Amino acid sequence: MPVRVAENEKYKFRGDLLKVVVGEQNETFNVHENLICTSPFFDKAMSGPWQESTQKTIRLPDDEPHIFAIYVHWLYYGTLPMFNNKTDNTECLNILKAYTFGDKVLDTRFQNTAIDALVETWTTPVDGKHWYPGLAAIQYVYNNTSESSPVRKLLVDMYVSGAQDSWLRRWEKQGSIPQSFLLDLASKLLGEQDRPKPNFTASDYYIRDSGNVKASPHKKGS
Fold first, then answer.
1. Per-residue CA distances from 122 to 91, 162, 163, 184 (Å)
2. How would DSSP label each residue in 100-162?
3. Which residues does UniProt call coiled coil (predicted)?
4. Do 46 and 18 touch, CB atoms closer than 8 A?
């Protein structure tokens, strides 16, 4: 890794610290104002004649401190501290929460970094297997993003590429699968798959007799 960076990087940490109070327990983070105000959300909060601007304090009561901590780490280091090498889908869910936080604070660079991280987790095998975002991750995305969100398209593309139908059947018993996800999945499969025209044989769809069914009245006798 090179030790030299752009000359103007030396001014990154210049200026006042901004206090950000996050979550129900009021966890406090101190972040350089010049750094965090690259986000239009924070820049607007600190630019007007608002209480936040005069007190150098912003409150985010509805956000999770550990997700904001990921954002702060990214602001300073450009990386996401969430790699855990586990298969319980926690990492995927945190990445997606980070993505939606980036949407809230209008930081598209952070969102794109989250997308990079999601693709990295999917393409990097754990125990020799590729792990997909699970039901909780899909529910979170479809409950917290707009219909046109690119992350929805990414999840659908992942599942079209190699997911198993048994997963959907298992999830149906565990909880509600977002109907919008199923519709997106079906649309992708129907719209882009190179499907040959089938040669239908009616008997392939017959209901098979169990052996206890009486003879049909239309059957001719001998």
1. 11, 11, 12, 20
2. HHHHHTT-HHHHHHHHHHHHHHHHS-BTTB-----HHHHHHHHHHS-TT-HHHHHHHHHHHHH
3. none
4. yes
| Nearest CA-CA partner of 91 in 107, 74, 70, 60 | 70
Q: Residue 57 — left, alpha, or beta (φ > 0 → left; ψ -120 to 50 → alpha)?
A: beta
How far apart CA 60 and CA 143 sit, in angstroms, is 20
- What is the arrangement of strands in the sheet containing 17-22, beginning at the earlier edge strand? 27-32, 17-22, 57-60
Average pLDDT over residues 25-49: 94
Pair 56, 19: CB distance under 8 Å: yes
pLDDT digit string, tens, across residues 121-172? 888 877 777 788 889 999 999 999 999 999 999 999 999 888 888 888 888 8
- 38 close to 12: Cβ distance less than 8 angstroms: no
8-17 pLDDT tens trace: 777 777 778 9
Mean pLDDT of 109-130: 88
> 């008997």: which residue's tokens?
203
Integer Cα distance of 107 and 97 in angstroms: 13
